[in-house]
TrEMBL record:
Keyword line: Hydrolase
PANTHER family on file: ISOCHORISMATASE HYDROLASE, PEROXYUREIDOACRYLATE/UREIDOACRYLATE AMIDOHYDROLASE-RELATED
Protein name, as recorded: Cysteine hydrolase
SUPFAM superfamilies listed in its UniProt record: Isochorismatase-like hydrolases
Record domain Isochorismatase-like: where: 4-177
Position of the signal peptide: none
GO molecular function: hydrolase activity
Record carries keyword Metal-binding: no
Coiled coil region boundaries: none
Length: 184
């Protein structure tokens, strides 16, 4: 699939600690393995801030309330989960807000590699996945969402977003279906 990249977003220790689906990391690792086997670049997107969080304002409900040091260098919670740990040479993009594009160099990385089809996974469906999909659609990327490669703490929110919202701007597939198509 020339021009395709798998985005693994916000799969960091402090975020995964709140996932109530024990099978999620292994399932997501299956998508990463399938992408690598097919020669599809895996791009890891993480949330990260400077020491002292100068990028965060108290007006921002999500990030203004973070404890000191959270998602800053040296924070063990900011480390990517070992199930999807980047291989040497894989790109890690650090973002400053909910969308993978905001405060990051993701678009520059994608354009430089001539990647125009994004396969989205991550935590949470109502956060990074939704925000990234909306921005990517406005930037004219082709999009696929791996429904079981995304997680939301509210299963009903996840279902509505995947079935009714995300499907308007993206192809929706499961990890198994997508992996089989790559291998086929």
């Amino acid at each position: 699939m020339p021009g395709t990249a798998l985005l693994v977003m916000d799969v960091q220790q402090a975020i995964i600690a709140h996932v109530r689906d024990d099978g999620y990391p292994a399932r997501l690792a299956g998508a990463v393995k399938a992408a690598r086997a097919a020669g599809i670049p895996v791009i890891h997107v993480v949330l990260g801030f400077r020491a002292g969080h100068p990028e965060c304002t108290p007006r921002n409900k999500n990030f203004g309330a973070l404890p000191p040091g959270a998602f800053a260098e040296g924070d063990p919670g900011s480390v990517i989960h070992p199930a999807v740990e980047p291989l040497p040479g894989e790109t890690v993009v650090t973002k400053k807000r909910v969308s993978a594009f905001t405060g990051s160099d993701l678009e520059l990385v994608l354009r430089a590699a001539d990647l125009d089809h994004l396969v989205l996974t991550g935590v949470a469906t109502s956060g990074v996945v939704l925000s990234t999909l909306r921005q990517a659609a406005d930037l004219d990327y082709r999009l696929t969402v791996l429904s079981d490669g995304c997680y939301d703490p509210d299963p009903e929110v996840h279902r509505v977003l995947v079935d009714k919202v995300l499907a308007r701007q993206a192809e929706v597939s499961t990890i198994e279906e997508w992996s089989a198509a790559l291998a086929g």
